[in-house]
Specification:
about 300 residues; single chain; binds cobalt (II) ion; alpha+beta; about 30% helix; 6 helices; binds 2-amino-4-trifluoromethylsulfanyl-butyric acid
Length: about 300
């Protein structure tokens, strides 16, 4: 359906925005301008490449995202409920002049996702009390001045057992491995390939149903960033693209199902699942995190 718009005719206006005809401007040029490529990505892939100003605004939102994760980390201990974590995140977000993006997003009822143990993602805060040895992923996305920054971390509650230690370490390293692939001219497939290789070499598995995503102007934008895949496949990355990488890694099999609440994704085999997420920008020579934390 969108095919017709992806082919640029010789006499069409040049997508670089010069006002000239394509044939009189960028057609056939080897080195195309950044604007040309940004316009092409918008037309062909619905990808909204960000300006320096946009990136600075997302970085500001990202500082709040990371501060929120730090606040939650300082409060997590056996005995706290996921509802209390929700209250903490909600109030901190509002106090800082932002809006919690999850609240009412496609009907999601709370301000943060809290995913415990075998919950892969989209856990809904409620009465559940965290206990010693649990792992819990906290996924935070404020909207600050209209800009979104999305990040998550998996925390230990009390003292972790060996499986908890392992899956959290592997998931963190998977995000790192994915981030290390990001630079102009790498592909989206390179990211998934690096993550899948590391996870499977460690005897773990990669969730297929949920992917990273463009972010910044909206919660979920194009493109999708799978956490599995083949090298040199998929779209080429260009500077100014802003997206998340957020691998969900299971200690058992990758299969999942969704609970009757319509949100909570859990491992089919009941095995532990962990995740880390950051919002990243492709720079001229690599990648910068807009929600930086140590991995
Ligand atoms: N923060 C999640 C992500 O990383 C999305 C959560 S959607 C919600 O993409 F509705 F559950 F909040
Ligand atoms: Co995300
Ligand atoms: Co998220």
């Amino acid at each position: 359906m969108k095919k017709s718009s992806s082919k640029i005719g010789r006499n069409d206006p040049c997508p670089c925005g010069s006002g000239l005809k394509y044939k009189k401007c960028c057609m056939g040029k080897k080195e195309v301008s950044a604007e040309y490529r940004a316009n092409l990505y918008a037309r062909q892939h619905n990808i909204r490449v960000k300006t320096e100003k946009d990136i600075e605004a997302i970085r500001k939102a990202g500082r709040l995202t990371v501060a929120t994760l730090d606040l939650v980390e300082s409060k997590i201990r056996p005995g706290i409920s996921t509802e209390e974590i929700n209250t903490l995140v909600h109030e901190f977000t509002i106090k800082n002049g932002a809006i919690p993006a999850p609240l009412n997003y496609r009907g999601f009822p709370k301000s943060v996702c809290t995913s415990v143990n075998e919950v892969i993602c989209h856990g809904i805060p409620g009465k559940r009390i965290l206990k010693d040895g649990d792992i819990v992923n906290i996924d935070v996305t404020p909207i600050l001045n209209g800009y979104y920054a999305d990040a998550n971390k998996t925390f230990f509650v009390g003292e972790p057992g060996p499986d908890a230690k392992k899956i959290v370490a592997v998931a963190g390293e998977c995000l790192k491995q994915g981030m290390e692939m990001v630079r102009p001219d790498a592909t989206i497939g390179d990211i998934g390939w690096a993550i899948q290789k590391y996870a499977e070499d460690q005897g773990c598995s990669v969730v297929r149903e949920f992917v990273g995503h463009g972010v910044g102007f909206e919660f979920h934008e194009a493109p999708q960033i799978p956490h599995y895949g083949r090298r040199k496949s998929g779209l080429v990355l260009i500077p100014g693209m802003v997206f998340t990488i957020e691998p969900m890694i299971n200690i058992g099999r990758h299969n999942l199902y969704i609970l009757d609440d319509g949100w909570t994704a859990v491992t089919e085999d009941g095995s532990l699942s962990a995740q880390f997420e950051q919002t990243l920008v492709v720079t001229e020579d690599g990648v910068k995190s807009l929600t930086p934390f140590k991995l």
